[in-house]
Amino acid sequence: MTTLEYRGYIGSVTFDAEAEILHGTVVNTRDVITFQGESVSEIKQAFKESVEDYLAFCAELGEEPEKPMSGKFNVRISPLLHAQAVAMAQSQEISLNTLVERAINDVVNRSASVDAQSAQDHQPNTDEECDSDREIYDVAIHWSGTRLAKASSVMTSMQQSLEVRVTN
């Protein structure tokens, strides 16, 4: 999958082998914006034109276009998970935002890797990176006093990531 960016909007491009065209969708807005082309230059141009058409259409309707996603969102989690995440972030001397971003990135990358059936993407670059991740996980489990089976979804996600790293 390839991405394009124009005026803050991000387009995802895929190849349709059956139709022999490139097809794209703007991914960082809830409104549906699509585009297609037969070549790289056509798909790039079609993407820009689709964004411009969307903005013009919204103007004609007198409505504000949906802004591209800003990278900010609210998450509702249990107080226990919140405390666990804060403790984990503090133990690594990073912000809570950085911890959450890394966890989401890890899950998204793992999901994309599973889709592509490529476990190589999850191997740590160094033994030190793997040890650092294991320490984060161990601190959180120790701090929470819970059994692994009752760990939160974030903790489970981190465990799965570590298992992939350790077994590869």
TrEMBL record:
Q: Which InterPro entries match?
A: Ribbon_hlx_hlx, TTHA1013/TTHA0281-like, Uncharacterised_HicB
Organism listed in the record: Deinococcus radiodurans (strain ATCC 13939 / DSM 20539 / JCM 16871 / CCUG 27074 / LMG 4051 / NBRC 15346 / NCIMB 9279 / VKM B-1422 / R1)
Give the organism's phylogenetic lineage: Bacteria, Thermotogati, Deinococcota, Deinococci, Deinococcales
Q: What is this protein called?
A: HicB-related protein
Pfam families linked: HicB
Superkingdom assignment = Bacteria
GO biological process: one example: regulation of DNA-templated transcription
Keywords tagged on the record: Plasmid
